[in-house]
Write a structure and sequence with these properties.
- This protein has an 8-stranded parallel beta barrel with strand order 1-2-3-4-5-6-7-8, surrounded by 5 helices.
- The protein is 36% helix and 19% strand.
- The protein is an alpha/beta fold.
- The radius of gyration is 16 Å and the shape is globular.
- It starts with a strand and ends with a helix.
- It has one domain: Alpha-Beta Barrel (TIM Barrel), CATH 3.20.20.70.
- α3 runs parallel beside α4 and α6 packs across α8.
- Bound molecules: D-xylitol-5-phosphate and zinc ion.
- Zinc ion (ZN) binds next to β2.
């Protein structure tokens, strides 16, 4: 299993976003951009304009996490703005199959996200068609929350299905990942790991990302 780290800029200092991203760019594989509409989650964040500007800089592939109502209407705008992967929430989608097909048609990767109270059984039918399954390990909406240990069962179940059926999808975890939790997440089978405040709240986010990656990789060799 090849560990990929995605840096969530939600809790980065937006006043110096470019430097914040530069500080982690050698240590991470993707940049994770959280999009919130104050309806699906009680918070507002970035829109397509921020994404367009980041995409132009071509620093890292952009992993977009849509926490919005009606992704059926909006998802393609994010592909057009420069996303390399667009993940939408199962709970918000009217027709997940249609969105998956539309995003793929524009040559972007596509992810399906599930909130803590949504079970894997609800999305089983889509697993062979997606590139990423995002198992939320906090209630979506804010950075800096505590990791929900119970979600590890869902990650294990997803890993076992992925291996049994030889699926190509990556298993992403997002929320509360840090020094205390990254090993458990990797051992449970997560290979696409979002890190936000655990790195951006430190004096050296790049070093923090590297340390986290090392911990995850080491935990797999035990
Ligand atoms: C929360 C967002 C996360 C968040 C993660 O709803 O989806 O991407 O920024 O932040 P940390 O790593 O601080 O939990
Ligand atoms: Zn996210």
């Amino acid at each position: 299993m090849d560990i990929k780290i995605s840096a969530s800029i939600l809790n980065a200092d937006v006043n110096r976003l470019e430097q914040e991203i530069a500080s982690v760019s050698d240590s991470v594989d993707w940049i994770h951009v959280d999009v919130m509409d104050n309806h699906f989650v009680p918070n507002l964040s970035f829109g397509t304009n921020v994404l367009e500007s980041l995409a132009k800089k071509k620093i890292k592939p952009l992993d977009i996490h849509l926490m919005i109502e009606n992704p059926d209407k909006w998802a393609l705008d994010f592909v057009a703005a420069g996303a390399d992967s667009v993940t939408f929430h199962y709970e918000a989608a009217e027709d997940p199959t249609k969105i998956i097909k539309e995003i793929h048609a524009l040559k972007s990767r596509v992810g399906l996200a599930i909130k803590p109270n949504t079970s894997l059984a609800d999305v089983k039918e889509f697993l062979s068609d997606i590139d990423v399954l995002l198992v939320m390990t906090v209630e979506p909406g804010f950075g800096g929350q505590a990791f929900m240990n119970k979600m590890l069962d869902k990650v294990r179940e997803a890993r076992s299905i992925t291996n049994d059926k030889n699926l190509k999808m990556w298993i992403q975890v997002d929320g509360g990942i840090g020094l205390q939790t990254i090993e458990q997440a990797a051992q449970a089978g997560a290979d696409f790991i979002v890190v936000g405040s655990a790195a951006f709240s430190t004096a050296d986010p790049g070093k923090a990302m590297q340390d986290l990656r090392e911990l995850a990789v080491k935990s797999l060799s035990i």
